[in-house]
Amino acid sequence: MGGAVSAGEDNDELIDNLKEAQYIRTELVEQAFRAIDRADYYLEEFKENAYKDLAWKHGNIHLSAPCIYSEVMEALDLQPGLSFLNLGSGTGYLSSMVGLILGPFGVNHGVELHSDVIEYAKQKLDFFIRTSDSFDKFDFCEPSFVTGNCLEISPDCSQYDRVYCGAGVQKEHEEYMKSLLKVGGILVMPLEEKLTKITRTGPSAWETKKILAVSFAPLIQPCHSESGKSRLVQLPPLAVRSLQDLARIAIRGTIKKVIRQETVSSSGNGLKNTPRAKRRRVRRRRMETIVFLDKEVFASRISSPSDDNSCEDLEEEREEDRAPPESKPALPVNFLREKVLSLPLPDPLKYYLLYYREK
């Protein structure tokens, strides 16, 4: 099995390689990928493979290859405040990255067929919220997951600005998928062995673009009950935030602005990670390199004239990324947390502002 880009030593190096190969092309998508460590969504015994550009499957748990998620995130053209529906939400890895871009006033829903995968996703989401500094660097739209077959969504559910389906869609279900989309919205799904982007330009008008040649396992057909009726999936209701929660969001946003103002004259931004000092190894391959997504599933990028025809490995050392041998990178600092804890407020209010998160 081969990947479209070289494996990384850690999450940041994997993202470097995806950028080098032009899978990640925008700053918003890059920030989201760097903010969530892919290895956190692996079982402990499989984490050594987390930074390879390969899919991973264990039982019902599945993660697509990083290059596939990169293309999906870029195609969705996410913006703060949008609504997003993830069909086949799996581990919640993609939904959590999307939530970092949508912000606190977006909508982030997922439908997953397997209840054990829903529990796994909730555990990973809870771990991210409690322990990751990225939760404080971004305004997060927390995903909500429901169990069910995504082909049985109740017809009275709301439409969404962005929809992604992580399984192969048969031609007969194309119109159903389109019906989930608002006018002006974007749908990304594997359709007829191509990762396809469909934009709804009007009530009955659509623009279609083929992104990537793929072969996904098909959607599982609904199982009808004994009465012959399907089990309709009810998506989460659109939540209305309390005044107390809105105040917390506003206070955290104001503190972040103060931090940025205080650090504007320094060499780095208080909400960014400390620059890394490392040697980067980038493998450039033809873009039609096979990427296996499952035991019987693979994807290959559509080649273009700009593709590099060389398969040789290149060692790259950038002077700006290297520090003197005697120096060590400083540990990242959670400036928001430090600022909140220094405020002259009662401790319960401080921890409320921090979402009662662990250090």
UniProtKB/TrEMBL annotation:
Q: Name one GO molecular function term.
A: protein-L-isoaspartate (D-aspartate) O-methyltransferase activity
Keyword Acetylation part of the UniProt annotation: yes
According to the UniProt entry, which residue ranges have a biased composition of type Acidic residues? 309-319
An annotated GO cellular component: cytoplasm
Keyword Transport recorded: no
Q: Which InterPro entries match?
A: PCMT, SAM-dependent_MTases_sf
Task: Cite the residue spans of the region called Disordered.
Answer: 263-282, 302-330
SUPFAM superfamilies per UniProt: S-adenosyl-L-methionine-dependent methyltransferases
Sorted alphabetically, which keywords does the UniProt record give?
Acetylation, Cytoplasm
Q: Where does the protein principally reside? A: cytoplasm
What are the subcellular locations of this protein? Answer: Cytoplasm
Query: Polar residues: which segments have biased composition?
Result: 263-272
* Similarity section: Belongs to the methyltransferase superfamily. L-isoaspartyl/D-aspartyl protein methyltransferase family.
Protein name per UniProt: Protein-L-isoaspartate (D-aspartate) O-methyltransferase domain containing 2
Write down the species. Ursus americanus
